[in-house]
């Protein structure tokens, strides 16, 4: 019996995908030169757990529609939903969300979706989060879920970004939180006097800063495909049980 | 009652009859998977079909390559909304692999190296609709795309085309596989947008 077919998460997952809900933009916040977070009020949404995503639908004046999936940065049992979106230069939807959308604008949301890449405060044990770029979004929801619930589960986050300016949720992550340990990794530009040379995440970074395999942490890895491939392979090489390593990849346009 | 998103114009108005509803075209080959990519040596690889009387039919890497190999040109559609047109694969038809197999069961659970599972009606694997594929674009299939071999069932959403395929197990009734337990549809027809529960 493989743990990949474990059903423990299924019961915890809200299950009402079908309907599109009209939402209104409450606020937007610039997170980086290419990304922003967007808070929506979506009557009838009814909440989501950490790690889930939503389908977002835009309709043009002539009726043309485009749908994309986005991870949810927030956790709630109500109708507020926070997304965070990175602009893909050749994208059709993300440039609109990052550059054009403003408070009062309308769009539609469907979900929440996904019952695998999720964390709830009822899950026991240490949690290792590893994010690359906008892959931080579902991991941020897990951190917020831990804080909101008063969970004392030990959390560690490794967050790899191109430069200090590219970090999403910087001030929130820089606010000390007992039981949450944050390690920053920079691939191109580091802050002044930073100990580690800029570079992509390596097995040494994981050996140094992540929970060891001996602790059997639940591991969540999210980012671009190359990042996730590298990290997941390194974790297995370091002795982590592949069934404890959950991955989600960002791709497409 | 339409909700109009102010200032959104979009750009994908070209009529594309081969694109299922809610999909967009990509030239990339994105990856969807739930965990680490397993390392599988073709020297150890084997593929089996297990029938209702517990008989196991097994092929190793050389044996499956000794069967008739077909070229497959097909569009693929991922539930995460990208579609890719005109992909080219090589592999062995499930019709060939099922030729000597007798079963009264109508459903199949695909099992994979690494533990992934997905359920498919047997009728969707037969009749020139499904293959065990081990080449993509003229090259051995990359591990991150399911190599050394994956199931290829391109008329369903691509999560049904299980990567790192190891065995097919006959079942008398439909049972949910991995993504099917985690929010995705039991059948997954892209033309009916059968994405979720």
Question: What's a concise summary of this model?
Answer:
The complex is a heterodimer of chains A (253) and B (197). Chain A is an alpha/beta fold and 253 residues long. Helices cover 18% and strands 31% of the residues of chain A.
Layout: helices, strands, pairs:
The complex is a heterodimer of chains A (253) and B (197).
Chain A: E1 21-30, E2 35-41, E3 53-59, E4 65-71, E5 80-86, H1 94-100, E6 106-113, E7 127-132, H2 136-149, E8 155-161, H3 170-174, E9 180-186, H4 203-209, E10 218-224, H5 225-237, E11 245-250
Parallel strand pairs in A: 7-8, 7-10, 8-9, 10-11
Antiparallel strand pairs in A: 1-2, 1-6, 2-5, 3-4, 3-6
Chain B: E1 24-25, E2 46-50, E3 56-60, H1 61-65, E4 70-77, E5 82-93, H2 94-97, E6 107-112, E7 117-121, E8 131-136, E9 139-140, E10 150-152, E11 165-171, H3 178-181
Parallel strand pairs in B: 1-5, 2-11
Antiparallel strand pairs in B: 2-3, 4-5, 5-8, 6-7, 6-11, 8-9, 8-10
């Amino acid at each position: 019996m493989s743990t990949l077919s474990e059903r423990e998460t299924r019961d915890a997952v809200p299950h009402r995908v079908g309907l599109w809900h009209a939402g209104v933009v409450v606020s937007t916040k610039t997170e980086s030169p290419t990304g922003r977070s967007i808070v929506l009020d979506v009557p009838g949404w009814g909440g989501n757990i950490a790690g889930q995503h939503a389908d977002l639908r835009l309709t043009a004046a002539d009726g043309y529609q485009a749908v994309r999936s986005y991870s949810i940065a927030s956790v709630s049992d109500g109708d507020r939903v926070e997304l965070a979106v990175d602009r893909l230069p050749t994208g059709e939807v993300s440039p609109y969300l990052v550059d054009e959308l403003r408070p009062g604008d309308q769009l539609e949301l469907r979900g929440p979706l996904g019952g695998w890449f999720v964390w709830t405060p009822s899950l026991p044990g240490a949690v290792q989060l590893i994010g690359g770029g906008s892959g931080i979004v579902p991991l941020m929801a897990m951190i917020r879920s831990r804080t909101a619930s008063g969970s004392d589960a030990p959390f560690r986050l490794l967050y790899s970004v191109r430069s200090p300016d590219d970090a999403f949720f910087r001030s929130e992550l820089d606010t000390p939180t007992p039981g949450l340990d944050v390690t920053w990794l920079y691939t191109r530009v580091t802050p002044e006097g930073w100990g580690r040379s800029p570079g992509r995440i390596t097995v040494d970074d994981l050996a140094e800063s992540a929970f060891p395999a001996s602790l059997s942490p639940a591991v969540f890895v999210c980012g671009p495909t190359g990042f996730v491939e590298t990290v997941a392979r390194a974790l297995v090489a370091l002795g982590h049980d592949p069934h404890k390593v959950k991955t989600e990849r960002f791709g497409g346009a | 009652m339409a909700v109009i998103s102010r200032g959104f114009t979009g750009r994908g108005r070209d009529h594309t009859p081969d694109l299922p509803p809610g999909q967009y075209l990509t030239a990339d080959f994105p990856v969807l998977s739930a965990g680490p990519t397993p390392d599988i040596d073709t020297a150890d690889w084997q593929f089996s079909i297990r029938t209702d009387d517990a008989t196991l039919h097994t092929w190793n890497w050389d044996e499956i390559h000794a069967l008739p190999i077909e070229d497959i040109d097909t569009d693929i559609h991922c539930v995460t909304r990208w579609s890719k047109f005109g992909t080219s694969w090589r592999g062995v038809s499930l019709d060939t692999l099922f030729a000597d197999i007798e079963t009264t069961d109508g459903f199949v659970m695909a099992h994979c190296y690494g533990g992934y599972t997905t359920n498919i009606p047997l009728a969707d694997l037969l009749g020139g609709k499904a293959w065990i594929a081990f080449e993509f674009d003229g090259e051995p299939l990359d591990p991150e795309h399911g190599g050394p071999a994956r199931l290829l069932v391109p008329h369903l959403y691509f999560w049904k085309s299980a990567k790192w395929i190891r065995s097919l197990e006959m079942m008398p009734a439909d049972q949910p596989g991995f993504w099917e337990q985690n929010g995705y549809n039991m059948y997954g027809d892209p033309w009916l947008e059968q994405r979720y529960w």
